[in-house]
Specification:
Blueprint lengths: L16 E2 L10 E2 L5 E4 L3 E7 L4 E8 L4 E7 L5 E5 L7 E6 L9 E11 L3 E6 L24 E6 L5 E7 L4 E4 L8 E4 L10 E3 H7 L1 E5 L2 E5 L4 E7 L11 E5 L5
């Protein structure tokens, strides 16, 4: 159980890109946390969340293929779907913090075919946390502060996720006007179970952002443990240049 707010850099994961094709058996294919699986056919997958953190599953196809991501819970209960178009990342995220979905819990992400081609799928269900200094000036954490990369997406990966504790009204910055296309603040309210599972579309609708001076300001509306999810809408490659989102905004 998380009791304190810890400062932790979200370090780039050292993960192998699993080339080749996932097994085509009727049983669900297990997804190890952080592993990237490449495939060319519709497939049922599975992972088990055992930590009181958010988890996420994401699928990115090639620019000419299109797959849709559905998520099912225990007993085959339907939890939601992400159905973006060709070349775009679909993701489904689940909140397992105290007061939301119980633990342990097994989830079945299902990838369905819309337009044939290759895709990559990845689940992240670890225990990563990040804390961002409160801005002291508009768009910055302080005039002399260095840039702080609080989310990292390694080029090997499809998705990155980290829990973040925010109070209602608390804000943070990202240094580009288009950050909300790739970095999402997911807020769940323990009083409303409909917020415990979120697709990319739902996360986009629910998050509160505004662009000021070519920077993106994110603001929490609920106090609690939320999630930062980062995607890139590009297929993973086996090199490791990093993408970072600094809190500092230069004019």
């Amino acid at each position: 159980m998380k009791n304190v707010r810890r400062l932790r850099y979200v370090a780039p994961a050292v993960l192998a890109l699993v080339l080749g094709t996932a097994p085509g058996a009727s049983a669900n294919t297990g997804l190890a946390s952080g592993a990237v699986v490449a495939n060319t056919t519709a497939q049922n997958f599975q992972y088990t969340a055992t930590w009181d953190y958010w988890s996420v599953t994401a699928v990115v196809p090639t620019s000419t293929s299109n797959y849709e991501l559905y998520l099912f819970g225990p007993g085959g209960s339907y939890l939601g779907a992400s159905t973006y178009g060709a070349g775009l990342t679909d993701f489904m995220a689940v909140d397992s913090n105290t007061g939301t979905r119980s633990l342990p819990q097994t989830y079945d992400p299902e990838v369905t075919l819309n337009s044939a081609g290759r895709y990559w799928i990845q689940s992240q269900y670890g225990d990563s946390e990040v804390s961002i200094p409160t801005p002291t000036h508009q768009g910055t954490t302080g005039f002399s502060d260095p840039d702080i990369s609080y989310m990292i997406l390694d080029s090997n990966n499809v998705v990155s996720i980290s829990d973040i504790y925010l109070t209602a009204g608390e804000s943070f910055w990202a240094s580009t006007p288009t950050a909300a296309d790739n970095v999402f603040l997911l807020e769940a309210d323990p009083s409303y179970s409909s917020t415990w599972v979120q697709s990319r579309a739902i996360a986009t609708i629910r998050e509160h952002t505004q662009v000021i001076d070519n920077c993106t300001l994110y603001t929490a509306t609920i106090t609690g443990w939320h999630a930062l999810v980062m995607i890139d809408d590009t297929q993973p490659v086996a090199t490791s240049p990093q993408q970072g989102v600094p809190t500092r905004c230069r004019s």
